Amino acid sequence: MITTTTESSLISAAELHNALQQRQVLLIDVREPNEYNNAHIPGALLCPLANVQELEPPCSSDTRVVLYCESGRRSQMAYEILARRGFQNLKNLEGGIQRWKQMGYAVRGAANAPLSIMRQVQITAGSLILTGVILGFTVNAGFFFLSGFVGLGMLFAGLSGRCLLAQLLMRLPFNRPKGK
Asked: What is the pTM of this model?
């Protein structure tokens, strides 16, 4: 059974803001740790989408659980996983943290944080592929292998859930948390 987004499964940023002020919600961020460190809604707990299956339901079935991610797609997937597992009183933040920020609500995180790792991966992979194609047409056809190699790496990342380029980029000094 696939759960689809319905009005009853969504919560607006304004509704969530009110619930947080009244401390009536358990808020879970399903993004990756680097995204959470860059900006998150105050009071949110981190549980990346890959780990959502391991979440235990709250002690009280009256506790409202709200999930969010960047735009609402990953949190919808988390919603479907938890709904199948029998979680009660479950909501998905409509529009994710993007909508939360658009509404002017506060976020916590690193000041002047770098681009998210996924954006860095997209920029780096896209640049390498484009460079391989341009050099393949203008210098030597052997440069097409660069584009193929990067494409193979992206395929591996999609199939395995492990992006070697992202792991490499996370080791760069500007992506490390201060003090490490």
From this structure: 0.67
